[in-house]
Structures are given as C-alpha cells and as structure tokens.
C-alpha cells in the first residue's frame, strides 16, 4: 500500500527519524569517546557497552520505521525538484536505511561471533554468544563495521547538507516535511 498523506510525514516517521538521529549521534560519540578512556576502566566499558545498546536500539527502531515508510508515499516537495535531484535523494535515503540496518547487524554479529557476548551498560547482564567463537570472522566483520561507520560520516554529512540546501538554497519544503 502506498497511501498519500499531507504535506508532512506521519508523526511516527518524524519522531523515529529524530530519535534515530540522536541514537546514531550518541553511538558515534560513545565509540569515539572510548579512544580517550583508559583500557580496562569502568568508563571505557560504559562507553563501549553504551555503543552496543545504542546500535541495537537503532536497529529496533529502524525496522518498524521502514515498514511504516513503505506504506506511505513521501509528501511532495514543493516546488518539485528535477529528476536528477529526486534520483540522488532516493539513492541517499536508500543508503541511509541500509546503513541503519546493516551497521548494527555487523556490530552485533562481530561481537557475538567473537565469543564475548554483548554487555549491557550499568548492569551485569549480557547477551551471550551462541555457538563456538569464530574470531577470524568476528574480526573481519568488526573491520567492515568500522569501515562502514567511517564511510557514513560522509553520507550523513551529505544528508544534512542536502536538507540545509533545500531549506536555505531552494527554499522548498523538503526539510519541513520531517519537522
């Protein structure tokens, strides 16, 4: 179903967009903060475990977000952009949604395959690894997770710049649809 809607995305999509933004921002902050914290310290463990939890939350929010998004047509951008802009926007949004699913899955898989499980911050609880540890595969997935995370600084940056360009340059309603 692709039901048309008004001039804004449905409230669920708007809210989950901004919640996802905050969660991704915090995930990047926590994983980068660990570099400045002493190995083996409680603070570093908290940063790393928070990163894991934030990634899992991103995945849990993104799946229903995609389902709802597929059921609703995007509100029209007024004035309508050209074909090249629409194709670029479609491509960027697809990349962002793939990232929001693949990145947490890579992180979760690499951690579980390492045999260490996934600790939850400020608790003694952990999601245990299942099966035998596969350290080589876990390391490969972790490197891919890190590469994708680095590459997505650029995609996220382009997304933000495009929103600002629509708002300040084109003066259309693209950004307002998500507010």
From TrEMBL:
Keywords: Cell membrane, Electron transport, Heme, Iron, Membrane, Metal-binding, Transmembrane, Transmembrane helix, Transport
Cofactor: heme b
PANTHER family according to UniProt: CYTOCHROME B561, CYTOCHROME B561 HOMOLOG 1
Family membership noted in the UniProt record: Belongs to the cytochrome b561 family.
Pfam families (UniProt xref): Ni_hydr_CYTB (PF01292)
InterPro entries linked to this entry: Cyt_b561_bac/Ni-Hgenase (IPR011577), Cytochrome_b561_oxidase (IPR052168), Di-haem_cyt_TM (IPR016174)
Transmembrane segments: 12-31, 51-68, 89-113, 151-168
Name this protein carries in UniProt: Cytochrome b561
Keyword check for Cell division: no
Compartment annotation: Cell membrane
Topological category with respect to the lipid bilayer: Multi-pass membrane protein
Domain Cytochrome b561 bacterial/Ni-hydrogenase: 8-179
